[in-house]
Each structure stands twice: as structure tokens, then as C-alpha cells.
Amino acid sequence: MGSMGDESKESFNGVFVPNDTRGKVITCKAAVAWGPKEPLVIQDVQVDPPQSMEVRIKIVFTSICHTDLSAWLGENENQRAFPRILGHEAAGIVESVGEGVIDMKEGDHVVPLFNGECGDCVYCKSEKTNLCGKLRVNPMKRVMSIDGKSRFSSMDGKPIYHFLSTSTFSEYTVVDSGCVVKIDPNASLKKMSLLSCGVSTGVGAAWNTANVQPGSTVAVFGLGAVGLAAAAGARAKGATRIIGVDINPDKFVKGKIMGMTEFINPKDLKRCVNEEIKELTEGGVDYSFECTGNLEVLREAFLSTHDGWGLTVILGIHGSPRLMPVHPMELFDGRRITGSVFGDFKGKSQLPQFAEECLNGVINLDEFITHELPFSKINEAFQLLIEGKSLRCVLQL
Question: Which of 54, 84, 89, 335 is catalytic?
Fold first, then answer.
């Protein structure tokens, strides 16, 4: 827990949150990334009070996504910023709110959002997008919106940068009020942490972006947490055939639990994956989901859909400057291709309903948690992800 001395604290569902730190700087533990591929350092940092329209959160659970891994590896030079506090999948409890925040209060259970929703801009008022003109996902952003400064600093006063508007690898973090949503206080914070990225992205891609129909056929390329969530979402909507594609055959064990009916390992084939899928499905699947961030895989996913109506949804992060491997004339065959950010969920206005559906068993969140570790072992959790041994390793702070 943060360094609060003997100050009084209040308990919310067994989690102790200081009730007399409002307006004060908090000293707490955070995992700081000091450079590409350098082990994260658990150290004391200072977290400033929230400013106008900001919220300070006590993080209770956080997990690691491939986006965190990519940032830590420094794969995109334009996005490098160190020292930095990474992390964007989490759940916690509001410690204090800044001036003007009226939809949250101290003690509320919340999930941070890397793709925010201000609620006032032309984007937020449109039903056609879940992007926000002010708070949409921005990996380049490293400071707060209102004043262009960081709320984190080292003990000698040097600033530490934010990440994806959330920075959840810290016992306390400060976010824009549009980048956090209140959830049911009776829901498990451990499970709810999964909704701030991977599960929502995959399930939402099947439900909102693709609008998978009952009786349809689906192919999922890349069986990490997002791909498995897309499969689970497709199953929940009544897809009858869900084909998983991955070079790791161990992934199919979990894939079957999530609803996959068939599995293809490209290494076992003597022809292209799309040709195999077309033969299996008499022309191609209705929907494909690309969850790898690999352009060659994207082309296979696109060509594996049925001409005339096939839809490919891109979920993988493509950091390469190379362009999409699709000739314009190939789109004249009726296949479509689109991207999906956060599963097209509007975070503040729609995520609570999705959380409720998960609590009712529509999506089994327990299956995504493969490991649990204390926050102090965050570097071990990174290694599990690197080695492909974990879907989500949840860290308790």
C-alpha cells in the first residue's frame, strides 16, 4: 500500500483507501519503466492530487496487455517516452476527485479507460463511433490534458510520464474523468479489470463491429486474450463454426473452452491458410478477426472470408510503416475490412451494461485469468506474456 504513515483509512469491500489524503501528494509504489527492455523498477513515486475534471484512483488489480509489452520493448520509436508508468488494464477505487467531477465520488469502484469518452464532443454524441474528440486512445500522449504536466514524479521531483491516459502500474494513478467509468460495487474488481482492454476489445469486435449473426461462420487469427474474447463473443451471438488459427497448438485447449470448433496451425499446412478455410467452409467464413498485428496474417484473414459479404475486423496493433497488403480491386469482390478500437464500446456509457452481462454469465471472465501474482513480481508477469504462457496475469497491489 502507499506510504500514509498512521493516517486514518476507510475500508471499501475490504480495500483500505485513505480518507484524509484529499488534496495532498501521495507517496506510493509504482513499477517504473526507465528504458526499452529494462526491467521495471518497483520504487516510491509521488502522485499529485487530481486537478479540475480529474480523478485519483487506488488501483487494486492490474494486468499486462501486449500493448504494454510493445511500449516496454520500445517497438515504435515515435511512442518512446521514459521514465514512464505503463499499464492500462485495471480496476480500483476512487480516492478523490477534482473540481467539476459530478459522476463519481470517493469510494466508487471504477475501471480506467484508455479510450475515453468526454460525452460532449461531436464524436461522443454520434452513434457511429466510440472515438472521442478529446480523449480517444493516443499512445503519443504522456501528460495530462488540462495543463500538459505529469501527475507522477520521482522522490527527487523529476517527472515520470503517463501511458495511454491510465498508467495503472502504480498503487495510485490520476486520470481524466472521461477516462474512468463507475461499475457495480458488488462486482469482483479482479474480474472487472479485464474489461478495461482485452476482453472488451475482442467481445465488442464480435458484437458491435462485426455484429456476428446466429448460424454464421468465423475465423480468428491469433489466439491471445483478444482473439479468444472475439471467439467467446461470436459464440455468445450464435456463430456455429469458429475456426482458431495460431502457430501454438496449445492455444486450442483454451480456444475450445471459449467456443472454438476447429483449429488450424499454419505450420501444418502445405498451402495458404485462406485456401484451407475456404475448402472447410465452402467458400470462406462470414467474419474473420485479425488479432496478431502481422500484415501477412492480415492478408490471410481477409482472403479467408467469403466473397460477396465477408467482413474482416482488424484488432492487432500494426506498428510497422508498411501499408495494408490489399489491392483496391480485391474489394470489388464484396469483401470488406475495418478496424475496431475497444470493440466499438463507448466506455463510460456502454461498459457498465457489458459488465452486467459478464456478471450474468454471458462471457466467462474467469477463463481469461491464467495467472495471479503480487504486484512486486510484475517482471515475472511480463516474462509469462513474452513466452506465451499467460492470457492475463492479474497483479494485486
Answer: 89
**In this predicted structure, what is the pLDDT of residue 16?**
58
| Whether residue 80 lies in the annotated active site | no
Can you give the residue range of the structural domain that contains 330? Answer: 202-343
Q: How confident is the model at residue 236 (pLDDT cuts 50, 70, 90)?
A: very high
Amino acid letter, residue 387: E
My answer on whether 272 and 297 are in the same domain is: yes
The answer to whether 136 is a known catalytic residue is: yes
Residue 272 burial class via C-beta count within 10 angstroms: exposed 0-12, middle 13-18, buried 19 and up? middle
Position 357 in a domain: no
CB 61 within 8 A of CB 190: yes
Amino acid at 362: V
**The model's pTM:** 0.93
Question: How many independent structural domains does the chain possess?
Answer: 2
| Pair (286, 187) in one structural domain | no
**306 included as an active-site residue:** no
3-class secondary-structure state, position 284: coil
Question: Which residue among 28, 95, 132, 201 is the active-site one?
Answer: 132
What pLDDT is stored for residue 19 in this prediction?
Answer: 64
Clarify whether residues 236 and 189 are in a common domain.
no
pLDDT tens, residue by residue, 313-331: 999 988 888 899 999 999 9
Tell whether 61 and 178 lie within a shared domain.
yes
Residue 88 is among the residues annotated as catalytic for this protein? yes
Average pLDDT for residues 185-189, to the nearest whole number?
A: 95
**Which residue among the candidates 28, 54, 56, 67 is catalytic per the annotation?**
67
Catalytic, out of 121, 330, 370, 372? 121
Per annotation, catalytic residue among 28, 118, 358, 393:
118
